[in-house]
C-alpha cells in the first residue's frame, strides 16, 4: 500500500458537488487512515470520486483528498474498521454515503456533545453495538426523541441523546487519540434537502441571518425564503446562528475551512423530478434543476391529492419563467398549468403568472403541468402545499365533515366562513359538532359580536336560525326540515382558538309500501329520485308464489295488467338495470288528476292475486295428482308438484314429532324408575329395623305384621325382594 504524506495548512475548496462527488459525504480536516490502497496524483475531487466508484480491484469505500497537492488516496477502510477518523488539516475525508440507517444522519466527525454541568446529556447508553446498529436503535427509540448519538469505538458503545450540538454550545474535541469518538446528528425533515459540509462556510456571502434556531429550522427558512433564492446556509453551532446565502461554493471560488470553529455549511440539493404523485397532507415541489435554470423541452406533471372534504392550498416562494408574451397560457411561453375537475363544471385550468402568490383549489385533487420550449430557460418555481379545511364551500357528498381553517390549530382572526350543506331533494340533514373551542362569552349567552357559530335551517341567513353557539360546550345534534343547511362562523381580532369540527349526513324519508298477503312490509331509507325530482314509490307483486304457479290464462292477464300499470306510471328502464318482479318495480307516484285510474289499477291487481289463491284452493279440492302429459298446462303441473312437496313435508314433520314424544316418555319413565327404586330400598331398611327392635319371627311374617307400611308399599318391597 502507498503511504500518505500530508501537509498541514488552511485554504479554500473550489467547486460544488458534481455527479460522482454527490455520492460521498465530505468531512473537512479529517482522514480515515494513513495506509491506503491506491494513490492517484493530480486529479480533481470529481475525478477522484469517479475512480473510487468505478474501481474493481478492491471495494473502494471512500478516499482522502489533499487539497493543495490534488492527491487522491483511495481506500477500502471505513471509520468503523479503523476505529474512527483522525483530525488532519488540509485534507478532506470523503466517505461513500452509506445505505440503511446511517444515511439518515449527518457525520460531524471527531468529537462528542459538550458536557453541561447538572445536565444528563445521554438518555440511553448501550455497549457492544456496531455503528449501523447504533443508528438503527436511535431511529427506533420511542421512550424519548433520539436526535443525536456519539459512538465510542474503543468499547463499541452507543450514547444516545435528545440534545443536538446547538443545545450544548457545540461539539467538544477529545484530545486522547486512544479514545476516538464520532458525533452523528439526525437529518430532520428539511435537512434532507441539503448536502452537509461540516467545518466549512461561504465566507462573507451571507445575506440574511436568524438567531437561536435549530439546523432543521434554518433549513426550512432557506427553503421558504422569498427575498432571495436561497441556495445554501451556514450554521454556527455554539450560538445557533443561521446565515442564508444565494451563493454556493462554486459561485465564490470555493468554501472556506475554519478548522474546528463549529460552523457548518449546507448546500441545497438540485430538484431533479419531472413530475410525480404526492399523497401527503403537506409537501413541496420545484421545477427540474431548481435552484438553477430548468432545461428545455420539458413536459412534467405533478398530481397532488389530499384527504376528501379538504382542499389544496398552494403558495409560491418563487416564480420566474422568463418574460411571457401575452397570455400566460399561450403556447409561445413556458407555462405552468393547474388543472382540477370540479363537479358540474368539468375540467378547470388556471395558468400561473409572475404575480401568482397563492392558489386554493375547489377539490381535494389538482394537477400541475409544466411545459417548456426550446428557446427559453429561467430559474423556474418553488411551490409549497398543504391540505386545508375550506372556509367557504358547498357540501353535497353524504357522510361529510368540515371544520374551521387550520383546525385543530387556531383559526385566523377576522374570519368569515360559510358552509352550505345541500342534500338530494326530499332528504333531511343531521348535523353534529364533535368539538367546539371558541371564545367564551360569559353568562352562558352567545354574543354575535364575538367568535360564534350560527346554524340556519335553509340556504340564506334569512332562514330560521336553529342555533347560535360559542364557548367550548359540545351541543346536541341538529336536524333540518329541508335538504339545505347553512353554517356561518365569524371571528374577531381578539382571541383565536382551535375552532370546531363537525360531521353531517343525509337522512331520507322512510317509505312504507302495502304488499300482498304473501309479502312482508318493505322499508326504504334511500328511495330513488327521478330526473324531474318526482319521488318514486314502490308497488309489488306477490313474491311468495313463483310465476310458474299461474295458469297460462292468468299469466296473460297478469302481464297485461302489469304492463298497463307500468306504461302509465313508470319511466323507461333498461332491461339490465330493471328490478325483477320478486323485488318490485319502481313507479312514479301518481298525480292527483290520475288518482281514479291508479285506484282501479290497484284493485285490478288485487283481484288477480285473489284469483290465483282461489285457483289453488279449487284445484286441491277437485283434482287428484297424476302423470303429466303434453296437454297438461305448465301452471297446473307445478301445482301438483308443489302439493306433493307440501304433503311430504307435513308427513315428515308429524313423524318427527311422534319420535320426539316417544323419546320424552322413555326418559320420563327412566327417571321415575330411578327415584322409585331408591325410595323402596329406604322403606325396606326401616321395616327391618322395626322388626329387629320388636324381636319377632321371620322376614315374611314380620312384613305382614307391620302396621307402618301401606299395602302398595309392601307389595313393591316384596316385588323388589323377589327380583333380588
Automatic annotation (TrEMBL):
Residues 10-98, 186-268 form the Apple domain. Coiled coil: none annotated. Residues 685-694 have a biased composition (Basic and acidic residues). Residues 557-575 have a biased composition (Low complexity). InterPro entries: CUB_dom (IPR000859), Pan_app (IPR003609), Sperma_CUB_dom_sf (IPR035914). Residues 545-579, 685-708 are annotated as: Disordered. Residues 274-388, 391-507 form the CUB domain. The keyword Hydrolase does not apply. Pfam families: CUB (PF00431), PAN_1 (PF00024). The keyword Cell division does not apply. Keywords: Disulfide bond, Membrane, Repeat, Transmembrane, Transmembrane helix. The chain crosses the membrane at residues 650-672. PANTHER family: OVOCHYMASE-RELATED. This is Uncharacterized protein.
